[in-house]
Amino acid sequence: MNPITSEEISEAVVRLPSLPTIVLELINALDNGDVDTNTLAQKISHDQALTAKVLGLANSSFYGMQNKVGSIPHAVTVLGFNSVRSLVTAAAVVGTFSGSKSKVLDYAEFWKHAIATALSAKAIARKLGANEDQAFIGGLLHNIGRLVLATYSPSRYQEVLNWRSQHDGDLMAAEIHVLGIDHKTVGRAMLTHWKFPASIVETLNTPDVAHPHEQSRAAAVVTVADAIAYGLDVSGGEHDRIPVISQIEWDMLHLNDAMLTEIFSTTERQFEEACMILGTNAGE
């Protein structure tokens, strides 16, 4: 086995495509209460591809608006700047990487699962009265480290997949066994490189069940959303399996059967439309 070194991780992160400048500005504004939303809205409007996707999502079942949203400034007015920012981030990240090719990672499956997790995480956060936009972005990016690893060293990541198949094991356990590191750790490095705030980076942590706090709950939201997305089997991945969720993580969220039924229903209802708008071809 050849563990991946910290230097290789840094190189892999830097080698990935850069996000559009406007997205980096939006990310930097996540923790800035004095941000000029009007200026940023105008900058978003200058990117026609992003604007089309954001307005498509704003007018979809994702929000259920009764009146048509016709522009980015209008979307900011009716949805709020934070929601528009999360939609722009989603559109840009999926658009940046969905055209990539890899022998060991099916990008269509990858992004379908990511979008389902994002929708589920947002629905969970709504039930909890938590930050829906943080949950959505965290859910969308929860597996971004897999993309880094598979793109940087396809041959070694194929070893990971082979080991998992041979041992009928957990993917993160296989990554640690073969590479000495798991995709969540790599994902945190990726988001830190992109200068995401700690509140988003920490959603990729394993929830601290011994000392629960707000960021542990945010991480648990993404963990449970990931399991729900796998349970819905929307990505069609041959080797997808539902991860084990600890009882403490379930208890941290206090989700009852009625809540879970509605979260499943909401995710399923919004999924295909969101994938179609973001360009991941859910219907294929």
Describe this structure in words.
With 284 residues, the chain is mainly α. The protein is 67% helix and 0% strand. The chain is globular, with a radius of gyration of 18 Å.
Structure keywords:
284 residues, mainly alpha, 16 helices, 0% strand
Structure summary:
With 284 residues, this protein is mainly α.
Low-confidence stretches: none
**Using DSSP, what is the number of strands?**
0
Which radius of gyration do the C-alpha atoms yield?
A: 18 Å
Q: Strand count, sense and closure of the main sheet?
A: none
Number of helices: 16
Helix content: 55-70%
Q: Structural class of the secondary elements?
A: mainly alpha
Strand portion:
under 5%
Q: First CA to last CA: what distance?
A: 37 Å
- What sequence of helices (H) and strands (E) makes up the elements? HHHHHHHHHHHHHHHH
Estimate the global geometry from the Cα principal axes: globular
Average pLDDT confidence is 85
